[in-house]
Design goal:
Shape: globular
Largest sheet: 7 strands, parallel
Number of strands: 11
Strand order of the largest sheet: 2-3-4-5-6-7-9
Order of helices and strands: EHEHHEHEHEHHEHEEHHEEHE
Length: 319
């Protein structure tokens, strides 16, 4: 059995030890389709409260939001304190439980380039100053990053491991409109190509099971994302949580989530189609609490991984 080329494989090969991502959630970050810049309410599947703070420090700054045009940031010192607090707590746990030796600081929640450049520079520099941090991974949207930020990340990438994670979701504009994404597919392609032209590493997030998409459309999204030159990929099934626009559609019978069999079919075909040099960071997603409305199969990640590996057996592959 051949193991699928995972992001863990990539990091182990490059650094020769266990490298873990430390996910941090810094107050003040939001999205342009939440704050009304390009849309209101966020993506239809996004439950904004789910991005609430993981520490008391973050909760302390509730109601404080930045955007690309913010003229000042009175809470930068507190943000830097949050960053250090979270990194120290999470990396300590990863060392003790998993034997982690080096780290990528993962700016995870919301859109982590959607702030004034000086704020971003301070946060990125601080993260890279921590012991045994080899680089950054920055989750963002293609309509929320500037050339100035991209150029600075390219400069950092000369000495550190810098990744940008773009939410592609779908290459079909009609789908992006249905989920209230706030930008089109052309915008995503433009910024992925721009990031690649500057030598940056790009991870693309793909969602299977979006409203009214056929399996052929889902596979076309994967195909085009690969062609754009992404270096890594995260595959997600669309699941429904409470307090979202998608939940309202589901309750009214206007949306039916993807079945596990259909998700497995599209996922396996996407993996077969994937160029060997593209690493895989995630093959599924879900949540196991009372906020999940549907599908129920997204509750148990271990069961999902087991079924994915069973589906890979005929191909002599394993995850």
């Amino acid at each position: 059995m051949e193991q699928i080329y995972t992001f863990g494989n990539y990091l182990k090969n490059k650094f020769g030890c266990k490298v873990y991502k430390v996910g941090v959630n810094i107050s003040g970050f939001t999205c342009p389709n939440i704050d009304g810049t390009v849309a209101k309410g966020g993506c239809t599947f996004c439950e904004n409260d789910s991005f609430s703070a993981s520490t008391g420090e973050t909760q302390e700054l509730k109601g404080f939001y930045l955007n690309l045009n913010s003229k000042s940031n009175p809470n930068l010192d507190k943000q830097l304190q949050q960053l250090e607090f979270q990194f120290n707590a999470i990396s300590k746990k990863q060392r003790q439980q998993y034997g982690a030796e080096k780290f990528l600081v993962y700016f995870q929640s919301f859109t982590n380039t959607y702030a004034p450049f000086e704020t971003l520079k301070a946060l990125y520099d601080k993260a890279l100053s921590f012991d045994n941090v080899v680089g950054l991974s920055i989750g963002t949207r293609s309509d929320s990053i500037t050339d100035e930020t991209l150029d600075y990340l390219a400069k950092l990438n000369l000495k550190k491991e810098i990744w940008i994670e773009f939410g592609i979701q779908s290459v079909f504009d009609e789908t992006l409109e249905k989920i209230n994404r706030g930008h089109n597919s052309k915008n995503v392609k433009e910024w992925i190509l721009k990031a690649k032209s500057k030598g940056l590493n790009v991870c693309g997030h793909l969602i299977f099971g979006l409203p009214d998409e056929s399996k052929e459309m889902m596979l076309e999204t994967a195909k085009q994302a690969y062609e754009w030159g992404i270096d890594s990929v995260k595959y997600h099934p669309l699941y429904i949580v409470k307090k979202t626009a998608l939940a309202n559609d589901f309750i009214r019978g206007k949306f039916t989530p993807i079945t596990e069999d259909d998700y497995l079919d599209v996922l396996i075909k996407s993996i077969i189609m994937k160029p060997r040099n593209i690493s895989v960071q995630r093959v599924t997603a879900g949540i196991d609490d009372d906020s999940l409305l549907s599908p129920d199969w997204c509750r148990d990640k271990n069961s999902q991984i087991k079924k994915i590996n069973q589906a890979l057996i005929p191909l002599k592959l394993k995850y």
